[in-house]
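Internal tracking record. Fields below are filled automatically when a chain is submitted to the structure queue. Please do not edit lines marked as system-generated. If the sequence contains nonstandard residues, flag them in the REMARKS field before resubmitting.
Queue: standard
Priority: normal
Entity type: single polypeptide chain
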Amino acid sequence: MLARTLFRVLLTVVVLGALPASANAAAGWNGFGAGSWPPGSWRPYAVNSPFNRLTARVMVHPNSARIVAKVLSLGSIGNLTAGPGIADTPSDYGHPTFWAQPTDPLVTLDWTGGGPGSAIDGLRIRVPTAARAAGGDDGHMTVVQPDGWEYDFWRAKRPSSTVLSFSGGGRTRIDGSGLNSGATAANFGNLAGMIRGQELAAGRIDHALFAVVRCLARNTSFGWGTRSSPNSAYVYPASHWGNACSTDSTDLPPMGARLKLEMTDLQISALLLPAWKKTILRALAKYGAYIGDTGGPGLGFMFESGTTYTPFGRADPVATYARSNGITYWDDYYVFKVAGGLDWTRYLRVLVPPVVL
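SYSTEM-GENERATED OUTPUT FOLLOWS
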């Protein structure tokens, strides 16, 4: 009887693989953990979060056409990239997420300054041993606690097994608004608007996207409660600013502005474009995209960081999708060419901000 029991245990270990025990019996928030990551049908934050509200019947901004023209004049629409050249390299500016388990070690948060973070400085949270920040200079990292608090970090480092240092950060509820954190320029939660490989595979993204534009307005002519700052202007749902353009203009958007693709499902389906691009375009039409950061060529969107998965010996799901769907592979990257095949000037709109709930 003992021999038979030992055989069953050994067989279970072989079948489940070498992932930590928590990966096979995840007790993180909503049952998520390493090896039990959110499926394609899942989205972060509450149904009334700005990122989960539909664009239908939302008014187009009176200056939409001029703002769109100005944004597109700042530079090209950036490609989305994934693959070996991104995860765990200095090219990774994405947002990796780790789902803490009740058995993970307690780690003290050490705010080093450079951004917001005093509100969580000195707190102790559960952090998986394998968790690490994205390899780019921004060093983003998120740890979701079993109780549903999402801790977001900018320029995160783990100098010891018991300390996690960061230059900027905050927290927000994973089942709340997704706002007023502290690791992105707009203070959005790090999970807001990230495109996941599981969503591409499912062919559906049920939330707004995170948009990055080259630079923003300083003035408050956008209206609808736009606020000024020492740098750029910002509007709800943003609560912080980004880099302003060198020359100000009433045709530039503030941080937090919402974009939309003015197309129907039938119009998008009729386009001679790959399935992945139609999935992204449908999300832009149905939920839009919020400007959450500045930088890049002109206008861009973001994939979830593959570093969510690689510390646990798993491949980046976006790279896996790319490899299975004929995405161009060039110089150690899979290149998702977002710009081509669509007249962005004709169909892109700027919406008025959502109502504060």
